[in-house]
Amino acid sequence: MTPPGPVGDRFRRFRERLAAAGGDRPPVGDERPDAVRGAGLATGADHANGRDTASGSRIAAGGRTGSGSRTPSGDLTVQRDAEGRRRGRRGGGEELRVPEAEFTSYYGRPVLKPPVWKWDIAAYLFTGGLAAGSSLLAAGGQLTGRPALRRAGRVTALAAVSASAVFLVKDLGRPARFHHMLRVAKPTSPMSMGTWILTAYGPAAGVAAIAEAAGVLPRHGLLGLAGRVLPPIGHAAGLLAAGTAPALATYTGVLLADTAVPSWHEAYPELPVIFAGSALASGAGVGLLAAPPAQAGPARRMAVAGAALELYGAHRVETRLGLLSEPYRLGRPGRLLRAGRLLTAGGVAGALLGRRSRVVGALSGTALLAASVLTRFGIFYGGVASARDPRYTVVPQRERVEARRSGMDLPSDRAAPPSV
Fold this sequence. Notes:
Layout: H1 6-22, H2 34-48, H3 53-56, E1 79-80, E2 86-87, H4 119-144, H5 147-172, H6 176-181, H7 190-210, H8 221-257, H9 262-265, H10 271-290, H11 297-320, H12 326-329, H13 331-353, H14 358-388, H15 391-408
Antiparallel strand pairs: 1-2
């Protein structure tokens, strides 16, 4: 007789263990309920694989429970309950969650290249606004017959625009680059338009300031003729400078918003408003410092208008931009902007309450000038901070994509996967 093969030995041993556990396999015509038959099969299979009946009794008829599956050896692989949680062999699993994304990039570099501009560009933003506000102050003094305001505004405008040219040339590297930009006039480029605005404003402000020297020239001879001609020319030049001043005050805000820096680009409606208000407040500060209280009426009105625009724009920037408002509230930019708002409010209050005091007026003017400096530097450093953190670039992009998908009724990339 041929000895039984390996398969026959395994089958014989399986039947012996099955019989020892609870009897042989029931016949086909067994009348027991399906659940009982399934429980018996499961119990026998558990004993055959060396497991107790307590764990095997959890398996329903056919060796499956819910969405779990059984391997050929009878082991339960993965189960999902009604809530979609993955469960292990013993059923006490934990919910698997995707870890929070960490906004990093290759070699730890930012997603955007931060602006290469340094503090001189922030100073350029201030001096440009100061020049524009001073020209408006000078025009107000000229039209209302206040020579102290006119003189202070014209001289300050020339000094401020000269400082702006120095800061700009320092950033460009050499003066020839400013000249080369005048070869083209491109209306869609804020930098090109800013170059032409400066070119139109600078000579007009210079002539208006030079005209203030007519009072010290002799009355006879060639210098006397110049002294008689300069005042009307200065008046025309002052009005021309005042007409160009709004563009000079706001184009720098458009220039910043035209970049890819997140907190600058998203604040494109507010930056020109903030810069216009800061320019008016700084010009009013010049008037409060230089003019006697009797002639400082236009300066006080400019201070109120400038403070209203600046504070409104700053409030919008810190509340409308959502996540991109953080760079303007945190760190050094937040401290600068908060101090600027306090000084602006204090300067306006002093200008209105101390109308008859020259000392209070001078302190108010100093506060308004300092507030303008802090506001420009705070806006500048806030944009730089937003470019250095990848979170301010990645999160708004994802939100825009999700909003676009929702508007077009497209499936979301982050939809939950179907249950297995």
